[in-house]
Amino acid sequence: QKEVEQNSGPLSVPEGAIASLNCTYSDRGSQSFFWYRQYSGKSPELIMFIYSNGDKEDGRFTAQLNKASQYVSLLIRDSQPSDSATYLCAVVRSGGYNKLIFGAGTRLAVHP
Amino acid sequence: EAQVTQNPRYLITVTGKKLTVTCSQNMNHEYMSWYRQDPGLGLRQIYYSMNVEVTDKGDVPEGYKVSRKEKRNFPLILESPSPNQTSLYFCASSFDGGSLKYFGPGTRLLVL
Q: Which residues of B74-107 are buried (b: 16+ CB within 10 A; e: fewer)?
């Protein structure tokens, strides 16, 4: 079992719709969770982080965390073609020094 | 401008020919890390460094070496590259490693 699992996609949504990206993790002790956006051929860009159960909103992005279910999600409202990218979920592994573990990413395609 | 730089950006080499990929940051960050990214596997940590002269293995360290003689630089050394090291490499830095905001532009390596 991978430490951080994501559906590879592609997730295809029409422009203006809500895109929902999901991530599960195996380390029950993890406390910090991050979402990165990566355009093809580019480096990852940090877009959201969440530490507490519940929702956290930033502009069109909402991160949701459910530690009991070991589940993190990212909602993108009013999706735009410029949101088309791969979204990486990352989790800080518990124990020892901070170590960020990445999922393989979900490719999102927003079509006009 | 805060940035992480990597060189070279693209490299084609042959099996067994030693190479070094440089990484430099201008933010006085203590934590630096190297990742490789392969299709379907996401970003996997190779080595990390918590400060000058302090380095440790990540999840896939075999075949790689690093050094941290200065705070700003964290070179990745492949002493005898093999084709399975063909990958996209990213260097990243942060104050504490818990969240990685700054990534280099990536180095695409092909080992023949």
A: bbbebeebeeebbbbbbbbbbeebbbbbbbbebb
B41-73 tens-digit pLDDT: 889 999 999 999 999 999 999 999 999 999 999
Structure tokens at A75: 């909602």
| CA–CA separation, B37 and A109 (whole Å) | 21
Place of tokens 């023949």: B112
User: Which chain B residues are within 8 Å of A41, Cβ to Cβ?
Assistant: 106
Predicted local confidence at residue A98, as pLDDT: 66
Contact by Cβ (8 Å): B55, B49: yes
Inter-chain CB proximity B103 and A43 less than 8 Å: yes
For A43, which of B40, B96, B104 is closest by C-beta distance?
Answer: B104
Tell me if B34 sits within 8 A of B64, measured CB to CB. Answer: yes
Name A48's Cβ contacts closer than 8 Å, sequence gap at least 6: A34, A35, A56, A58, A61, A63, A74
**Number of neighbouring beta carbons within 10 Å of residue B44:** 17
Contact A44 B44 (CB under 8 A): no
Which positions in chain B touch A4 (Cβ < 8 Å)?
A: 42
